[in-house]
Fold this sequence. Notes:
By secondary structure, the protein is an alpha/beta fold.
Amino acid sequence: MIEIKHLSKSFETSDKTVHALRDINLTINDGDIYGVIGMSGACKSTLVRCINMLERPTEGQVIIDGEDMGALTDKQLRERRRNITMIFQSFNLLMQRNCLKNVCFPLELAGMKKADAEKRAMELLEIVGLPEKAKAYPAQLSGGQQQRVAIARALATDPKVLLCDEATSALDPKTTHAILSLIREIHDKLGITVIIITHQMSVVEEICNRVAILDDGQVVEEGTVDAVFSTPKSDAAKRLVSPDGLDGLPAAKPGEHRIRVVFQGSGATEKPLISALALEQGISASILYASTRSIGEKAFGTMLLGIEGDDDTRTRALAYFDKFEDISAEEVRGDE
């Protein structure tokens, strides 16, 4: 388990103090694939670097399996980092070494014999699907292949935690999907905890089970991926879930009620809700905004409806949607 308690990080510049992280509190359970998402400048990378103490927090604690990382000596910290490895956006491979030697590198640092290190490195290249590239150099590989080698190298010391700092940001969508599938396979096979730092909603949706929204150095929302993305509460989460938001919609007409309908699970998306509302209740609704997405094996979506009529019409419409277990509905005002 990883516990982040009241963590803050400040940097001193020539003329001021920059407060990058402020009072971060998170619990990441063993076996989680945990996403930390935020827009550029949210200090996501600073947070992940504090987890393995590449950056020392100004205040607070990072406790991993009951051990306070900030209280360790430099030697103890080096040992502990063997269990907490990291992959980066830029891959960070050693360009003068071939793939096999790149994967061998942390094993050599750990004092493993050359033959044993090469055997283990080949096993890891098999796991990431690149055994035929053992003698190739990074410059001869595609971006996706370089990231696979970086993952193999990260796994060399049998870590318990894999930190991914924008690990797919430099990759195209198809390659991103392949790398995320690989990370999922490794997670399932080895049971490691994965922390993914990203600004891409699609990454969190595809692979994570829990997510924290970071905004201006603070955690503004946290929970399961389906809960946060289906009913975002913070402004930052709403911007990420619906980047276009409801901006640009015309003002409500006189007598028009606007109802936000949030549906969760595949059953909800299969119901002809709007036509059924008209047939069963005699209530016509205009779809002003709609967004759906798949998270894991479930589908989630949000609709904003415009319904003309009196208060009784609004009440009946809300009551209709409330009949369904996987649907919630509420009236929204123009500024919501």
